[in-house]
Amino acid sequence: MLVWFEVNGYTVLLDSDVAPGKVKSERSSYGEVILSDRLFQSLRRINPNVPSIAIKEAIRKLNSIPGDTPQTKNSNFRNFLLNGMSISYQLGKYKLYNELKLVDYSNIQKNDWLVIQNFTVFEGKVRYSPEIVIFINGLPLGIIDLIETSSNAIPLKRNCGKIKFCNYKLPTIFSYVQILVISNGNQARVGNPYLNCEQFIPWHSICREEKLINGVTELEVLIQDFFDKRSFFKSMKDFIEFTQIQVDTLPKECICRL
Protein backbone atom coordinates (compact mmCIF):
# COMPACT_ATOMS: atom_id res chain seq x y z
CA MET A 1 0.00 0.00 0.00
CA LEU A 2 2.85 2.38 0.78
CA VAL A 3 4.26 1.81 -2.72
CA TRP A 4 1.01 3.12 -4.25
CA PHE A 5 1.44 6.35 -2.30
CA GLU A 6 5.10 6.58 -3.31
CA VAL A 7 4.02 6.37 -6.95
CA ASN A 8 1.73 9.35 -6.27
CA GLY A 9 4.70 11.35 -4.98
CA TYR A 10 4.15 11.05 -1.22
CA THR A 11 6.85 10.57 1.38
CA VAL A 12 6.12 7.32 3.24
CA LEU A 13 7.16 6.55 6.81
CA LEU A 14 6.50 3.92 9.47
CA ASP A 15 5.28 5.15 12.85
CA SER A 16 7.86 2.90 14.54
CA ASP A 17 10.58 5.04 12.93
CA VAL A 18 9.17 8.47 13.85
CA ALA A 19 7.26 7.77 17.07
CA PRO A 20 7.84 9.84 20.23
CA GLY A 21 11.26 9.11 21.70
CA LYS A 22 12.82 8.10 18.40
CA VAL A 23 15.78 10.00 16.94
CA LYS A 24 13.65 11.09 13.96
CA SER A 25 10.53 11.65 16.03
CA GLU A 26 7.83 13.80 14.40
CA ARG A 27 6.04 14.58 17.70
CA SER A 28 6.72 14.67 21.42
CA SER A 29 3.81 12.49 22.60
CA TYR A 30 1.24 9.99 21.31
CA GLY A 31 -1.47 12.51 22.11
CA GLU A 32 -0.24 14.90 19.43
CA VAL A 33 -1.83 14.49 16.02
CA ILE A 34 -0.40 17.56 14.25
CA LEU A 35 3.22 17.34 13.07
CA SER A 36 4.14 20.84 14.18
CA ASP A 37 7.63 21.12 12.65
CA ARG A 38 6.34 20.04 9.23
CA LEU A 39 3.41 22.40 9.58
CA PHE A 40 5.65 25.34 10.50
CA GLN A 41 8.01 24.77 7.57
CA SER A 42 5.11 24.27 5.17
CA LEU A 43 3.33 27.44 6.26
CA ARG A 44 6.54 29.45 5.88
CA ARG A 45 6.96 28.09 2.35
CA ILE A 46 3.33 28.71 1.36
CA ASN A 47 3.13 32.13 3.04
CA PRO A 48 6.56 33.69 2.45
CA ASN A 49 5.41 37.19 3.41
CA VAL A 50 3.89 36.16 6.73
CA PRO A 51 6.24 36.56 9.74
CA SER A 52 7.14 33.59 11.93
CA ILE A 53 5.29 35.07 14.90
CA ALA A 54 2.03 34.93 12.93
CA ILE A 55 2.70 31.38 11.77
CA LYS A 56 3.33 30.27 15.35
CA GLU A 57 0.05 31.89 16.39
CA ALA A 58 -1.75 30.04 13.58
CA ILE A 59 -0.31 26.72 14.79
CA ARG A 60 -1.42 27.54 18.32
CA LYS A 61 -4.96 28.17 17.06
CA LEU A 62 -4.91 24.95 15.01
CA ASN A 63 -4.07 22.99 18.14
CA SER A 64 -7.19 24.36 19.84
CA ILE A 65 -9.88 24.48 17.15
CA PRO A 66 -13.06 26.18 18.45
CA GLY A 67 -16.20 24.08 18.85
CA ASP A 68 -18.26 22.19 21.41
CA THR A 69 -18.10 18.84 19.59
CA PRO A 70 -15.55 17.10 17.36
CA GLN A 71 -17.92 17.51 14.40
CA THR A 72 -18.21 21.26 14.99
CA LYS A 73 -14.44 21.50 15.34
CA ASN A 74 -14.06 19.49 12.14
CA SER A 75 -16.35 21.90 10.31
CA ASN A 76 -14.47 24.93 11.65
CA PHE A 77 -11.14 23.39 10.70
CA ARG A 78 -12.41 22.63 7.22
CA ASN A 79 -13.28 26.30 6.83
CA PHE A 80 -9.68 27.19 7.73
CA LEU A 81 -8.46 24.57 5.29
CA LEU A 82 -10.50 25.86 2.38
CA ASN A 83 -10.49 29.60 3.07
CA GLY A 84 -7.35 30.23 5.10
CA MET A 85 -6.98 31.88 8.51
CA SER A 86 -6.98 35.46 9.70
CA ILE A 87 -4.30 35.80 12.35
CA SER A 88 -3.82 38.65 14.81
CA TYR A 89 -0.70 39.02 16.94
CA GLN A 90 1.03 41.58 19.09
CA LEU A 91 4.28 43.16 17.94
CA GLY A 92 5.47 45.60 20.55
CA LYS A 93 2.62 48.05 21.18
CA TYR A 94 0.98 47.27 17.85
CA LYS A 95 -1.64 44.67 17.04
CA LEU A 96 -1.09 43.32 13.53
CA TYR A 97 -3.12 41.08 11.21
CA ASN A 98 -2.19 38.60 8.50
CA GLU A 99 -4.09 36.29 6.16
CA LEU A 100 -2.54 32.85 6.00
CA LYS A 101 -3.18 29.77 3.81
CA LEU A 102 -2.87 26.23 5.19
CA VAL A 103 -2.64 24.67 1.73
CA ASP A 104 -1.41 25.92 -1.63
CA TYR A 105 -4.11 24.80 -4.05
CA SER A 106 -2.55 26.50 -7.07
CA ASN A 107 0.93 24.97 -6.72
CA ILE A 108 0.56 21.49 -5.24
CA GLN A 109 4.32 20.93 -5.13
CA LYS A 110 4.67 23.59 -2.42
CA ASN A 111 2.78 21.34 -0.04
CA ASP A 112 4.27 18.57 2.10
CA TRP A 113 2.73 15.18 1.21
CA LEU A 114 3.26 12.42 3.78
CA VAL A 115 1.74 9.11 4.79
CA ILE A 116 2.56 7.29 8.02
CA GLN A 117 1.69 3.63 8.45
CA ASN A 118 0.20 2.57 11.81
CA PHE A 119 0.27 6.12 13.18
CA THR A 120 -0.57 5.50 16.84
CA VAL A 121 -2.72 7.87 18.87
CA PHE A 122 -3.51 7.66 22.58
CA GLU A 123 -6.36 9.68 24.02
CA GLY A 124 -7.13 8.84 27.62
CA LYS A 125 -6.96 5.04 27.77
CA VAL A 126 -7.94 4.57 24.13
CA ARG A 127 -5.32 3.50 21.58
CA TYR A 128 -5.91 3.88 17.85
CA SER A 129 -3.51 2.77 15.09
CA PRO A 130 -5.12 3.04 11.65
CA GLU A 131 -3.31 1.43 8.75
CA ILE A 132 -2.53 4.75 7.04
CA VAL A 133 -2.78 8.41 8.05
CA ILE A 134 -2.38 10.97 5.26
CA PHE A 135 -0.74 14.25 6.30
CA ILE A 136 -0.76 17.36 4.15
CA ASN A 137 1.59 20.01 5.56
CA GLY A 138 1.69 18.12 8.85
CA LEU A 139 -2.12 18.08 9.21
CA PRO A 140 -3.88 14.68 9.44
CA LEU A 141 -6.44 15.03 6.64
CA GLY A 142 -7.09 11.41 5.69
CA ILE A 143 -7.25 7.94 7.23
CA ILE A 144 -7.36 4.49 5.66
CA ASP A 145 -8.75 1.99 8.16
CA LEU A 146 -8.40 -1.69 7.31
CA ILE A 147 -11.02 -3.98 8.77
CA GLU A 148 -10.74 -7.71 9.35
CA THR A 149 -13.35 -9.77 7.57
CA SER A 150 -13.64 -13.24 6.09
CA SER A 151 -16.41 -12.08 3.78
CA ASN A 152 -15.98 -10.59 0.30
CA ALA A 153 -18.39 -7.81 1.19
CA ILE A 154 -17.35 -5.01 3.50
CA PRO A 155 -19.47 -5.24 6.66
CA LEU A 156 -19.99 -1.49 6.96
CA LYS A 157 -22.88 -1.75 9.41
CA ARG A 158 -20.89 -4.05 11.66
CA ASN A 159 -17.98 -1.60 11.67
CA CYS A 160 -20.10 1.52 12.01
CA GLY A 161 -19.93 1.16 15.77
CA LYS A 162 -16.13 1.23 15.57
CA ILE A 163 -16.19 4.48 13.60
CA LYS A 164 -18.62 6.14 16.00
CA PHE A 165 -16.59 4.85 18.95
CA CYS A 166 -13.43 6.39 17.47
CA ASN A 167 -15.19 9.70 16.87
CA TYR A 168 -16.37 9.80 20.48
CA LYS A 169 -13.24 8.46 22.18
CA LEU A 170 -10.65 10.10 19.91
CA PRO A 171 -12.04 13.58 19.33
CA THR A 172 -8.65 15.19 18.69
CA ILE A 173 -7.61 13.43 15.47
CA PHE A 174 -11.18 13.33 14.14
CA SER A 175 -11.41 17.08 14.53
CA TYR A 176 -9.06 17.29 11.53
CA VAL A 177 -9.67 14.23 9.35
CA GLN A 178 -11.63 15.09 6.21
CA ILE A 179 -11.48 11.77 4.34
CA LEU A 180 -12.03 8.32 5.87
CA VAL A 181 -11.57 5.16 3.82
CA ILE A 182 -12.75 1.78 5.05
CA SER A 183 -11.33 -1.26 3.28
CA ASN A 184 -10.90 -5.00 3.69
CA GLY A 185 -7.74 -4.86 1.60
CA ASN A 186 -9.65 -5.36 -1.63
CA GLN A 187 -12.91 -3.46 -1.66
CA ALA A 188 -12.93 0.13 -0.44
CA ARG A 189 -15.52 2.72 0.56
CA VAL A 190 -14.84 6.41 1.07
CA GLY A 191 -16.61 8.97 3.21
CA ASN A 192 -16.17 11.35 6.11
CA PRO A 193 -15.90 10.42 9.81
CA TYR A 194 -19.27 12.04 10.50
CA LEU A 195 -21.31 10.42 7.71
CA ASN A 196 -23.65 7.52 8.35
CA CYS A 197 -22.36 4.13 7.26
CA GLU A 198 -24.82 3.99 4.36
CA GLN A 199 -23.22 7.18 3.00
CA PHE A 200 -19.81 5.60 2.45
CA ILE A 201 -19.54 4.90 -1.27
CA PRO A 202 -17.27 3.24 -3.83
CA TRP A 203 -14.82 5.42 -5.70
CA HIS A 204 -15.34 5.42 -9.45
CA SER A 205 -12.84 6.88 -11.85
CA ILE A 206 -12.97 6.94 -15.62
CA CYS A 207 -10.65 3.96 -15.98
CA ARG A 208 -11.75 2.07 -12.85
CA GLU A 209 -13.51 -0.83 -14.58
CA GLU A 210 -10.56 -1.46 -16.90
CA LYS A 211 -8.21 -1.52 -13.92
CA LEU A 212 -10.45 -3.92 -11.99
CA ILE A 213 -10.64 -6.26 -14.97
CA ASN A 214 -6.84 -6.29 -15.02
CA GLY A 215 -6.79 -7.48 -11.40
CA VAL A 216 -6.23 -4.17 -9.60
CA THR A 217 -8.15 -3.95 -6.33
CA GLU A 218 -10.67 -1.23 -5.48
CA LEU A 219 -8.32 -0.03 -2.76
CA GLU A 220 -5.42 0.38 -5.18
CA VAL A 221 -7.64 2.22 -7.68
CA LEU A 222 -8.84 4.52 -4.92
CA ILE A 223 -5.31 5.34 -3.77
CA GLN A 224 -4.09 5.87 -7.33
CA ASP A 225 -6.99 8.14 -8.29
CA PHE A 226 -8.61 9.62 -5.19
CA PHE A 227 -5.29 10.34 -3.47
CA ASP A 228 -3.67 11.70 -6.57
CA LYS A 229 -2.60 15.14 -5.40
CA ARG A 230 -4.98 17.01 -7.71
CA SER A 231 -7.87 14.64 -6.99
CA PHE A 232 -7.39 14.83 -3.24
CA PHE A 233 -7.69 18.60 -3.14
CA LYS A 234 -10.72 18.43 -5.41
CA SER A 235 -12.24 15.90 -3.05
CA MET A 236 -11.66 18.05 0.00
CA LYS A 237 -13.35 20.97 -1.70
CA ASP A 238 -16.29 19.21 -3.34
CA PHE A 239 -16.75 15.61 -2.22
CA ILE A 240 -18.24 15.95 1.23
CA GLU A 241 -20.42 18.78 2.50
CA PHE A 242 -21.26 16.92 5.67
CA THR A 243 -23.23 19.74 7.22
CA GLN A 244 -25.80 19.61 4.44
CA ILE A 245 -25.65 16.09 3.04
CA GLN A 246 -28.72 13.85 3.26
CA VAL A 247 -28.91 10.12 2.66
CA ASP A 248 -31.56 10.45 -0.06
CA THR A 249 -29.52 13.03 -1.99
CA LEU A 250 -26.18 11.22 -1.79
CA PRO A 251 -24.87 10.30 -5.25
CA LYS A 252 -24.59 6.61 -6.04
CA GLU A 253 -20.96 7.09 -6.94
CA CYS A 254 -18.34 9.80 -7.05
CA ILE A 255 -16.83 10.55 -10.43
CA CYS A 256 -13.12 11.29 -10.49
CA ARG A 257 -12.62 14.67 -12.16
CA LEU A 258 -9.01 15.24 -13.14
From TrEMBL:
<keyword id="KW-0547">Nucleotide-binding</keyword>
<keyword id="KW-0238">DNA-binding</keyword>
<feature type="domain" description="Restriction endonuclease type I HsdR N-terminal">
    <location>
        <begin position="3"/>
        <end position="192"/>
    </location>
</feature>
<keyword id="KW-0680">Restriction system</keyword>
<keyword id="KW-0540">Nuclease</keyword>
<dbReference type="InterPro" id="IPR051268">
    <property type="entry name" value="Type-I_R_enzyme_R_subunit"/>
</dbReference>
<comment type="similarity">
    <text>Belongs to the HsdR family.</text>
</comment>
<dbReference type="InterPro" id="IPR007409">
    <property type="entry name" value="Restrct_endonuc_type1_HsdR_N"/>
</dbReference>
<dbReference type="GO" id="GO:0004519">
    <property type="term" value="F:endonuclease activity"/>
</dbReference>
<protein>
    <recommendedName>
        <fullName>type I site-specific deoxyribonuclease</fullName>
        <ecNumber>3.1.21.3</ecNumber>
    </recommendedName>
</protein>
<keyword id="KW-0378">Hydrolase</keyword>
<keyword id="KW-0067">ATP-binding</keyword>
<dbReference type="Pfam" id="PF04313">
    <property type="entry name" value="HSDR_N"/>
</dbReference>
<keyword id="KW-0255">Endonuclease</keyword>
